[in-house]
Every structure is written in C-alpha cells, then in structure tokens.
Amino acid sequence: MENHLSLETMARLLAGDLSHDELVTQVIPHFLDRCPECRQRYGEVRDLQQEVGHWDERVAVFEGREARELFAALKDLPFDEQLALVLDDEGFQTWGLCQLLLRQSLEAGFEDAAKAINYAELAVKISLHLEETYDPHWVLDLRARAQAHLGNARRVLGEFRSAEKAFREAERFLSKSMTGNEIVRAEVLHLKASFRSAQRLFPEALALVDQALAIYRDHDDSHGSSVSLLKAKILEDGEDLEGAIRILKGLLGELDPEREPLLSAYAWHNLVLCLAAAGRYQEAEPLLPEVREQLTAQGKALNLVRLRWTEGRIALGLGRTAAAEEMFREVQRDFLGRGMGYDGALVSLDLAILYAREHRTSELKRLAAGMAPIFESRDVHREALAALLMFRNACEEERVTVELATELAFQLRRYRQSLP
Asked: How many domains does the chain have?
C-alpha cells in the first residue's frame, strides 16, 4: 500500500513549515518509493556518509568527492611536502580528506608501515585545524580516531612507546567529546586491542576486543566482522589455536565474499595459517586454492608470498620435503629482496628445521653463510640479532638440532610481538 502524504502534511510542506525530521521520515521516503533514479542517488549519499564518516549529507557528498582529488595531489609527494600542504593550504584541511587518510593509513599498514604512519600523522594535523568549520564535539571524535590510527601505524612499525602515547591522546579526546558516538569508541577499542595483543597483554586485548564487538553488535554495524578477525588473531598469538579456528570458521560462515572480499580473503588465509600451526595439515591443504584465488583477486602480492610460506609448512608437515624446501627458498629470496629481514630470518629457521631433520649439515652451513642480508636489515632488533648470531655459530659448528631451530623460531616470533 502506497504511503501518500496527508492533506495536512502537504499543506505544511508547501508552506515551508515541515521540520527536517519530518521531511526525512515522511516526505523523502514517499518520493524515493516513486522514483528508482532518486532511490539510487539516495543510496549513493548514504554510501558517501559511511565512507566520509560524517552525519551531514552535504559534507559527505561534496567533501567525499573532493577528498579523492586532494589525496591524489598528495600521495606521490615527499612527506615534508605533504605536511607543508596540509598545514599551510586550507583547501587540504577538510573532514573528507582526514577520513580518507585514516582509511589509507589502515590499508598501508599491511604492506608499508612507514607510509601508514605518514598518512596517520597527516590526518592528525588536519584534525587539529577543523575547529571553526565543523561541530566541535564531532571534531574531538575525529581527533580521537586520528590518534588511534597513528597509534596503530606505530604499533605495526614496532614503535610501542609512541604508540602508547597516541592511544592516550585518543582517549583524552574521547573523554572531552559529548557526541556519545559509541561507534567511534568501538573503533578506538578495536585498534587498541590490536596494540595490546602486540604487547602480548592477551587478557587485556581480549577484554578490549569484546567491548568493541558488543558495541558493533548492538548497533548492527558491519565492522564487527573485522573485530572478530582480530579476536581470532589474538587467540592465535596467545597460542589458543583451536579457539582461533572456531572463530574463523564461524566468521567465514557469516561473511559474504562479494560484499567483503578483502575481509573474506584474510579470514581464509588466517584459517589456513592456524590449521597449519595446529598440525592439521590434511585439513589445511585443500583450502589453499580458495585462499590463493581470493588473495590474487585483491592484488596483495606480499600476502601471496606469505601464503606460499604457509604452503611450504604444510608440505613439510605432510612429508613432502623437496617441495617444502623449494617453497621456503623461494619465500626467503622474496623477503630478503624486499628488505624484510625479520621474515627472512623466520623462513630461514624453517629451512634449518628441515635440514636438521635430515642431518644435512652442509646445507645448514650454506644457510648460515647466506644470512648476511638478515644481519644488515633494519627491521631485526638487537635481541633477535643475538639469537640469530647464536644460530649461525651453531650451523657453522654443526650443532644445530631440530629442537634448537624450533626454539629459536619460537623466540623470534615472540620478539616480533613484543618489540620495545
């Protein structure tokens, strides 16, 4: 049954006497019901509101479009020139650009932590120049989000002290805001949970992630899926592999790969990782083609390298030593070629475990001799270098055992999760 306007509502509409809420709840739905093209435009406006993160439709439409052009003008410049632009040119001091930079920071964190920090720092600077243009309490929420994203980017790079400071700033801005926007609070909790997990403070990380999940579920917000993915990762890092596998399987039963392709790809990838780590190789192997297809579609080359690494571990677990060795060598070359010394060291230890099982001492010595790029890498810190030096000496002196290589790999993974 069509919901026509009443005579009284029509009279008030023509007289310009309807409130904004009445227009939105009574008049606009009627027009949208009659015109497919207007329905499409309405959907575009709502999508832009979600993308820009602002309640005002005008800000969402005008700044959402403009932000892409502003970001295109920024992204290829050196950081000092980017910073000068956002500080000196008011045209770059917009809500829309700040929001886009936060999204870009989050995406860059998967492959380029330094770029993630740069984007977040630019967003922080912009958020400090928005006082007169927007609602001051909404600006406080945006500042909280910008600081939380900066803390997250610094967490990725291992700068834990400055990450802690950024999260304190985020909480300070939130405490001053009077918007009552629980979704903003959930976002800060989500990012802080990831930080606490990296510090190996797993009980606190799980408490934070559960708070964020509860908020998203209460508001029927789709971000709950990404928080569930983080909870699985926290459990994995805390060595509760079965708990992580349960969450990932449940999440994959809920996700629509068409609507959330990247999240689906990461969930599949993490499931294979957890299954392999739990020694459930027979269960993990059939999933590899699906994961490879999804990651390939997302164009994330580094994730495909990591998947190849997992495939090597599965091959080793199933007794296919030659195939595993080939995959580990391929992955090692790729990591070292990218300057990723830490990951290169970890895959080198997987090779060492393989060689130690077969008592291949000459290959262990060659492995040790080829570790120079790892020791020259900037991302391997002092404690890890000391462990790797001990490993190299053991290789040269033919003292490497499966147990020693396994223990060193375990230590290196823990060092990575607790960088100072």
From this structure: 1
